[in-house]
Amino acid sequence: MSDKSKPVAKARAISGFPEYTPEIRRAELRWIDAIRETFERYGYVNIETPSVEEVETLAAKGGDVDKEIYGLQRLNAEGEDKGARLALHFDLTVPTARYVAQHFNELTFPFKRYQIQRVWRGERPQEGRFREFLQCDVDVIDQDGISHDFDAEIPLIALQALNAVGAGPIRFMMNNRKILIGFYEGLGIEKAGDVIRVVDKIDKLPVEEIERILVEELGLPADAARACLALAQIRSTDNSFANDARKLGVENTLFEEGLSELTTVMDRLNAADIGDSVVEANLAIARGLDYYTGVVYEAQLIDYPEYSTICAGGRYADLVGAYIKRDLPGVGISIGLTRLFAKLLKEGEIKPERASPTDVLIARFPENDVLELDAIANALRGRGINVEVYHEATKLKNQFRYAERKAIPYLWFAGDTNEVKDLGAGAQAEADPASWLPARLKT
Amino acid sequence: MSDKSKPVAKARAISGFPEYTPEIRRAELRWIDAIRETFERYGYVNIETPSVEEVETLAAKGGDVDKEIYGLQRLNAEGEDKGARLALHFDLTVPTARYVAQHFNELTFPFKRYQIQRVWRGERPQEGRFREFLQCDVDVIDQDGISHDFDAEIPLIALQALNAVGAGPIRFMMNNRKILIGFYEGLGIEKAGDVIRVVDKIDKLPVEEIERILVEELGLPADAARACLALAQIRSTDNSFANDARKLGVENTLFEEGLSELTTVMDRLNAADIGDSVVEANLAIARGLDYYTGVVYEAQLIDYPEYSTICAGGRYADLVGAYIKRDLPGVGISIGLTRLFAKLLKEGEIKPERASPTDVLIARFPENDVLELDAIANALRGRGINVEVYHEATKLKNQFRYAERKAIPYLWFAGDTNEVKDLGAGAQAEADPASWLPARLKT
Fold first, then answer.
1. What pLDDT does residue A322 have?
2. Is the CB of A357 less than 8 angstroms away from the CB of B45?
3. How far is the first Cα of chain A from the last one, in angstroms, to the nearest whole number?
4. Ordered DSSP codes for A83-113
5. A386 lies within 8 A of chain B by CB
6. Which of A149, A123, A119, A134 lies closest to A335, judged by CA?
7. Contact at CB, A113 and B149, closer than 8 angstroms
8. Do B378 and A10 lie within an 8 Å CB cutoff?
9. A278: which strand partners?
């Protein structure tokens, strides 16, 4: 069947679409499993939505996201069938809004769901940017109002998920948009949104430059600009942020409400066991300008402070937008799994796994009856052990080499008595297929 | 924040793109987990490929599949950037071929991989057809030659996976294309491919009609046509098929080779524990006309004999096609998860799961300190228990109703002594957060 004259095309990766060898994929799968498990520990249920939505559904989000949307086009289809009525989703928020509206009467509220799916953005690929990537979202959505409990629970779940995958110490930065809006109101500033947009750059521009923009471009009085900057510079890992903020002398009900909400959130997070990670009240955090209405948060890797946000979220007043004539407020967070995984892989923080899940290779020689080897393999498999029977009777050397290349930890020799060789330790001992366990499964 | 005047759009499903409520999604997730576990029990490793390939890569497969391919088009992009150079994959075989070629030097052969991913086909949606669906493929690929062991192992893995999800009794029908080709050769028939195509319809057309086509349209002598039909009607669950085939009096080396290979495969499958399922040698099975070169198989649901093939595969001479100047033969099988799941769901064979993974709801009253409830929840979570703390201090009735609607099996009352109520059995007893277990986790 061989045809050595066949043409050879180049198999190549497509920029922006990650693909891993089995060793790395197993590490990624371990991440996904750990995140899933963490979300379920808190009682959140998995949903999946189609990869596509109608273009109008996606476009309803507005903004300049259109350019990044991948429309679908049936190749070789004729006429109107050809046009892009469907497009790949670019996040999981828009599909969830449509899902909740569509299945409204089938869901129990507060609806606690998590979603781990690929999303697509047609942006120009560059270091650390992907056109296809996995996003892990966890949200709770309720009708008309939603408990402030979730202001703390949602970031805590994300933090525990990041700890569970071993992403390293995380800095979780929390704020509440009521603090900002209320403070600006108290100062008599009308263009709160514009001020937030400018102050949000506090980590990127010098303080003097931000002050200049607030005064010269937004027309704030100099003392108001300085107060805004002072507020944005407040940080604390305990609840001292509240008194520091009050010392700035602004009195406003919304401001006080925000301080009180954030204090409660900080109390609950600080009471949890979060390992080496740090929870910080950070009054510069602003997030999505129109969407969020209460607590907001974003997280960074402490060991890579220059690296951008790894997860972010907050409280919103209405998820479902145009679908339902009532408000469905929620609290949610999104972890950009692919970007974070790729970053830690590049930094050598993620170790490749073995290239196979196999625990035991059953050696095979001409004198063995393959049906007897199968019987041993099946007895082991029945107890949760991953087993390969070597695929041909050949020299032991070849079978050793195969086990070594795949880093299979045990080699099994069948016979009147069975023996197992621990390929790491080198020891060989008698073993019973009905009771033997690899180290992985011993408690 | 409420705006009751907001416009209401209709949230609707997109035909051909399945989406489930949480209860059904949990059942689907259980299927995926069971299939994954089965594949890993045999030492197969997971890979994923991007959802897209370059259009040329997909088109290289040839045939009339082009029309079904969804190309990607960046909405609002300008100029050449707009054209569809990328398209969604329509199966997992083409991406795997590209993957193996691209990562050739990083893989250990025989390369045993499984892949569970969404694939897309732009066909007209109809009952039981999907435009987006999950496919579960398991293949082993080797260099230059590949052990006949896998002729039996691959269908056995698929059968075990289908048993693991509880798909009901399966009829696994096996053949070997060498039997057919060798038999036709032995009869002096030149157009073996054409004969296969006609005989393949034996379950759809009356025998007389097939005989007529073979004689009148393909020009076979009447006795050769009758011999072809007699071969195609041979079935056996033991190895009697081989003698039945030999009785037809054709002598040919390839034919004998095929009978011998199929006998070995049947022996191994019949020695395995496959529950209520049935393995049958069925000499009418032909599968993909050009692709397969040895053993071929397809499976049906015994309880739904009118329902089409649920998984299929076989041995092929060269996976990688145009990429590499050597042959990479393999044996593989593909389970159409979404179609099978949808069929069994429709028939009531799949029971929805609970709408949540929660084991325990911790009740909350005004006298409880939420940090203490959190501590109990975290102690339980640390031992693998899924826990929700009720999100507000409210009437017991409301909390009961929430637990009931989400079918949460236990309600926890915190206090100087903790008590747990089993909501199914009704019993309430003292419980220690450090040791209590729900029935699900008791061994």
1. 67
2. yes
3. 51
4. S--EEE-SSSHHHHHHHHHHTGGG--SSEEE
5. yes
6. A134
7. no
8. no
9. A171
Domain map of chain A by residue range?
Answer: 16-167+310-353, 360-441
Q: Do A149 and B381 touch (CB under 8 A)?
A: no
For chain A, give the percent of residues with pLDDT over 70. 93
Q: Please report which residue ranges of B351-395 form alpha helices under DSSP H.
A: 370-381
Q: Are A258 and A182 in contact (CB under 8 A)?
A: yes
DSSP A123: P
Q: Which of A11, A99, A103 is facing B323, going by the closest CB pair?
A: A11
Interface contact flag, B71 A66, Cβ < 8 Å: no
Residue B104 burial by CB count (10 A; 0-12/13-18/19+): exposed, middle or buried?
middle
CATH code of the region B14-167+310-353:
3.30.930.10
Query: Residue A123's closest chain B neighbor by CA?
Result: B74
CATH for A16-167+310-353?
3.30.930.10
Residue B57 pLDDT = 85
Exposed, middle or buried, A188 (CB in 10 Å: 0-12/13-18/19+)?
exposed
Structure tokens at A344: 């830690």
- Residue A167's SS3 state is coil
Q: What is the pLDDT of residue B170?
A: 97
pLDDT at A212 over 90: yes
- CA–centroid distance for A144 within its chain: 28
Q: A367: which 2 tokens?
A: 């004198």
pLDDT over threshold 70, residue B17: yes
Contacts of A300 (CB under 8 A, 6+ apart): A170, A171, A173, A307, A308, A309, A310
Residues in chain A: 443
pLDDT at A79: 57
Residue type, A106: E
| CA–CA dist B233, B227 (Å, integer) | 10
Contacts for B286 with CB less than 8 Å, ≥ 6 apart: B175, B177, B180, B196, B197, B199, B200, B296
pLDDT at position B2, please? 43
Per-residue pLDDT of A81-90, as tens digits, reads: 555 689 999 9
In this predicted structure, the answer to whether residue A230 has a pLDDT above a threshold of 60 is: yes
Tell me what pLDDT residue A75 has.
Answer: 81
Summarised one tens digit per residue, pLDDT across range A289-341 is 678 999 999 999 999 999 999 999 999 988 877 677 788 999 999 999 999 99
pLDDT for the residue B223: 94
Mutate to test the interface with A, among B20, B29, B47, B341 (most CBs of A within 10 A): B47
CA nearest to A9 within chain B? B323
The token duo for B154 is 């691959």
Residue A411 to residues A227, B221, B281, B337: CA-CA distances in angstroms? 70, 57, 34, 34
Q: Write the DSSP assignment of B51-91 as a string of letters.
A: SEEEHHHHHTT-GGGGGG-EEEEETT--GGGGS--EEE-SS
Q: What would the two tokens of residue A435 be?
A: 């009771």
Q: Which helix (H) or strand (E) holds A381?
A: helix A370-381
Q: Which residues are B422's β-sheet partners?
A: B410
Nearest CB to A75; choose among B9, B47, B71: B71
Q: Give me A225's structure tokens.
A: 């600009």
In angstroms, the CA B103 to CA B116 distance is 19
Residues of B within 8 A of A118 (CB-CB) are: 51
Q: Which pLDDT value is given to residue A61?
A: 59
- Considering the domain B360-441 in this protein, what is its CATH number? 3.40.50.800
The answer to whether A328 touches A320, Cβ cutoff 8 Å, is yes
For residue A436, the SS3 value is: coil
CB distance from B46 to chain A under 8 Å? yes
Considering only CA atoms, which of B413, B412, B410, B436 is closest in space to residue B422? Answer: B410
Tens digit of each residue's pLDDT (9 = 90 or more) over A32-72: 999 999 999 999 999 999 999 998 888 775 545 566 899 99
State how far the Cα of B320 lies from the Cα of A3, in Å rounded to an integer.
12
Contacts of B439 (CB under 8 A, 6+ apart): B409
